[in-house]
Amino acid sequence: MSTEAVPALRVQGVSKAFATPEGGEVRALDDVSLDVADGSFMVLLGPSGCGKTTLLRCIAGLESPDAGEITLRGERIDTVPVWKRRVNTVFQSYALFPHMTVTQNIAFGLQMDHLPKDEIARKVEQSLDLVKLTGLGGRRPHQLSGGQQQRVALARALAKEPEVLLLDEPLSALDLKLRRGMQLELKRLQQETHITFILVTHDQDEAMSMGDQVAVFNEGRIVQVGAPRDVYLRPRTKFVADFIGEANILDLTTEDTGAALASWGPIPTEAWASDSPAVGGTSRTVAVRPEDVLLSAEGNGRFSIVDATFIGGDLHAVVQVGDARLSARQPAAHSSGLTTGGRCEVTFRPGSLRIVEA
Amino acid sequence: MAKGSTRARAGQGSWWAGLPGLAYLVALVLAPLVIIVIFSFLSRAKLGVGVKWEFTIQPYIELFYRESLSGERTFDPTYLQIFFNSVLYSLITAVVCLVLSVPIALWIATRPPKWRTLLVFLVTIPFWTSLLIRTYAFVIILNDNGPINGALQGLGIIGEPISMLYTPFATTVGLVYSFLPFMILPIYASAERFDFRLAEAAYDLGATKLTVLRRIVLPAVRPGVIAGFILVFIPALGSYLAPELLGGGKTSMIANVIAAQFGASRNWPFGAALSVMVLVIVMLALVAFAVIARRSSKRGSQQSLESLL
Amino acid sequence: MKSPRGTGASLKNFPLFGPMAAIVFGFLYIPLVFVVGYSFNSNRVVTVWKGFSLEWYADVLSNDDIQRAVINSLRVASISTVLSVLFATGLAIGLLRMARAGKTVAWSLIMAPLVIPEIVFAIGTLALFVQIRFPLGVDAITLAHTAFCIPFALLPIRARLRSVDLAVYEAAADLGANEWVIFRRITLPLLAPGIVAGALLAFIISLDDFIVSYFLAGAGGTTLPVYIFGMIRNAITPGVNALSTLLLLVSVVIVTISYIIARRKR
Question: Is B5 in CB contact (< 8 Å) with chain C?
């Protein structure tokens, strides 16, 4: 391993609760810890209300945690007021100053740093070039399209060359085509500027395509952190397996011999993932992806096919296996004889069964 | 565990900003009201201005009773009559305003959007001019030598001028004129929010224009009507100028009587007691309207649907 | 009656509503037209037209008492406007951040002058000033006017404040601005149109007010509406029409300016 670098941002044991109008309390963050490596693109992923945006706002300084610490390059920032932190935010609604031009918007943060006028002008030009909005400095926000407004918001935050750039669901308001383009743009920007990016999203495709690291949130806690590929291939909990990609969740019992026993019979040991072997006689929650559930019309045909549809060159099928229903997906070319109402055999691709926490 | 906290909001100021304003309002709105209530339980000052700091409920008794020189108390309905008249005038004013306002509010709401702002603005202008001048205008108009009498005489309809001024009629006209914009604007606001496609659906189902009006449009603007009613009825209760300038001595409303106590009659505690009664009536009216508004809003959206079936 | 056929526009025309609207518009404006018209009447008898003349305007504008009344009115209106706008701006910002209980109390206080009959407010303020021995006159009127101008100034300011995306303030803080810088460079500029509108409204309200001014005028505090009232009460001289027309003109001009500003800022 490389030498222990001080992570750009470290979150330790952060908790935050909000009072509800009815007088109760909702725990938005529950003892959350996270390290963000310098110059990396970290994505905070999770469903609505899971706490990812709250954490982002705590890092920005727009909320203050009830407990825990946040340090930036080894120095605590959770005690520093928001306007003094070397952290800047791109807001979901862009939050451009409506009464200022694009240039004035971008210059605002630099004026707060008391930079000389000519340097401010130079940096504003640079920022406009960086987000490919050169020449639009004189426009006002309401004269710009949604995509352009977003780039101004980016330029405004990047102009100050912060240690960390926070992005709060920046692409949610854009239509699909723009969104794809902006995902690439953001990735490029991050690599060019080497600034640490932390982006919040509920869209797992976005997380997978942009992030170097993904932190999956659920109900105020981080349930798994890792590279996108790892999180996809090796989900640790039922929630992660289900939230990212599709997954079949099964309850199996494992015998002492290591053989897995499903409600319909034994499952060969090779089916288990090498780092997730089944041992001991207990019941387990197991995840397996639809593309790893293999159906065949040959053999005994023990199971009935509830539904079989061909979409875009693949067979999407639902099979009744014992008292469970499995989703399967495989290329149409290997799916002769598989029809709705028909019968099939089910095997699992070796190494595809994974034990997950419930 | 950690205590829950309300959502912080950087840069949006704090509630402290409102303190100077609130303090000022307490001093100049709340304090006067409190003093009036206090004065209503004090005794009449010898020279008439101010009060004598002696507790008594005499002012409230004077509302209902008159004391003769020998100390005998007889029931005197004069002031109750005036309260009743004021409520009556206000109700009539509100009803007339309603009848006049609905057509124009609906008409404006059904014009092209560009015209609407201008038309609403034209309705609002009189509201921003001095109430005194607007009331005075009718002194001229309803005058024996005024244009109405002049026109009627000129057309040969009447021989002698009709005495319109200094009558209950004049007062009512003045009141209606004062408060008409207060009724038009809320009804218009309601009408503007009305989704005309509901009416189109009704037409499609075979309804006539009258039916659509009666069963779909009017129920939909009910909130505006209720708001307009409150905005006319309550201020009309406290009107001073219309009864004073247009009504002569015969159509005194509460405000005129109260004003007299602080002027010629020089009985401040009694004036205060009258004011307290007015406030009570206003409070009751507000509560009544709140109840009506809440009940109507529960049925409101259903009504348009029911009319379609 | 058959169901109407036709496209959108004709479906929107209800029978007789157009003519009725015209009548109501007429009803709203014709009385004012008469006042203006008669102000040019050369006849001493106000309501009988004799000929065009500007003598009443000359009369009125050269009258010392009237000039004093006008100055009083302008002085009261100007100061009330400034004060009520200051208080209203603070209230608008404060209301945004108040808890529910405080908000209800605040709103009740703010709206009270509008709900309470003005006569009650007038005598209440009179009683207050008498009790604390504050002299009646222009200053007393100013203090009272400020109070009931506050709700009028508040409404446009608050509307403007609420139309701003709250995240804008957070963005400013995020970019390095502390509370005072945010107020100076973000809040105030954004509120400006609302403040101007509120100021214009407060000015007119104060200028046109009669009842409160009547009771608090004391010896030397006669404002223009109070003077006009005296003219009407004592004897209707044609000068009243001229004076009224002038006051009308000022009100209409100010409202129109306010309207134009509101439309421009769109």
Answer: no
CATH number of C57-263: 1.10.3720.10
Report the pLDDT value the prediction gives residue A260, as an integer from 0 to 100.
64
The model's pLDDT over C219-264, given as tens digits with 9 standing for 90+, comes to 888 999 999 999 888 876 778 888 889 899 999 999 888 888 777 6
What is the per-residue pLDDT for B4?
38
d(CA A33, CA C175): 26
**What torsion, rounded to 10 degrees, do the Cα atoms B46, B51, B55, B57 define?**
90
pLDDT > 60? residue B303: no
Domain ranges of chain C: 57-263
Chain A residues with beta carbon closer than 8 angstroms to that of B2: 15-17, 66-67
Candidates A313, A114, B9; CA nearest to C161 is B9
Residue B65, min C-alpha distance to chain C (Å): 23
Q: How far is CA B61 from CA A46, A78, B211, B261, in A?
A: 72, 68, 54, 15
User: Could you say which DSSP state residue A357 is in?
Assistant: B
Closest Cα to residue C94, out of C154, C164, C144? Answer: C154
Q: Which chain A residue is nearest to residue B2, measuring alpha carbons?
A: A66
Lowest pLDDT segment from A116-120, B26-30, B230-234: B230-234
pTM of the model: 0.83
Q: How would DSSP label each residue in A161-200?
A: --SEEEEESTTTTS-HHHHHHHHHHHHHHHHHH--EEEEE
With a cut of 50, say whether residue B304 has pLDDT above it.
Answer: no
Strand, coil or helix: A102: helix
With a cut of 70, list the residues of chain A below it in pLDDT: 1-5, 254-265, 276-281
> Fold for domain B74-308?
MetI-like fold (1.10.3720)
- Burial of residue B91 (CB within 10 Å: 0-12, 13-18, 19+) is middle
Region B172-183: mean pLDDT is: 92
Domain boundaries in chain B?
74-308
Selecting from C168, C174, C181 the residue whose C-beta is nearest the C-beta of A97 gives: C168
| C-alpha–C-alpha distance, residues B253 and B226, integer Å | 24
Residue C4: pLDDT over 70:
no
